[in-house]
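stage 2 :: seqdesign
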């Protein structure tokens, strides 16, 4: 099984930046898509960003477009989420996810098979 572990969450103020990291282990990724989702209290799990492991495809949800950047390090097998201009609406538990080989990039959580434990991001005003 593929294992994912997120880190980098914390408490920041509005306007600050924060970078989350997700370490992927268990197998070598070549064509597997990776993504970030988040879930705030009382809300459904929300798609944030996704990319192909090759880096050829990159996609963002409208609320974070222009502020967040997803990136991966193929050597370290990590996927990062750089978050800029954070606002209180970004407060949530952030999860990284990975699909299986042959799966395309998707914004649907149902299409991801491996998940991390999550890391809390809190943005104060």
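stage 2 :: out
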């Amino acid at each position: 099984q593929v294992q994912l572990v997120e880190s980098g969450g914390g408490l920041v103020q509005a306007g600050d930046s924060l970078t989350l990291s997700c370490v992927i282990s268990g197998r070598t990724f070549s064509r597997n898509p990776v993504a970030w989702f988040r879930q705030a209290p009382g809300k459904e799990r929300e798609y944030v960003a996704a990319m192909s492991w090759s880096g050829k495809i990159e996609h963002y949800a409208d609320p974070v477009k222009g502020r967040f950047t997803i990136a991966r390090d193929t050597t370290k097998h990590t996927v990062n989420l750089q978050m800029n201009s954070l606002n209180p609406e970004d407060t949530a538990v952030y999860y990284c996810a990975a699909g299986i080989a042959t799966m395309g990039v998707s914004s649907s959580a149902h299409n991801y098979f491996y998940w991390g434990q999550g890391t809390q991001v809190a943005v104060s005003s």
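stage 3 :: structure notes
- The chain has no helices and eleven strands.
- The first strand starts at residue 3 and ends at 7.
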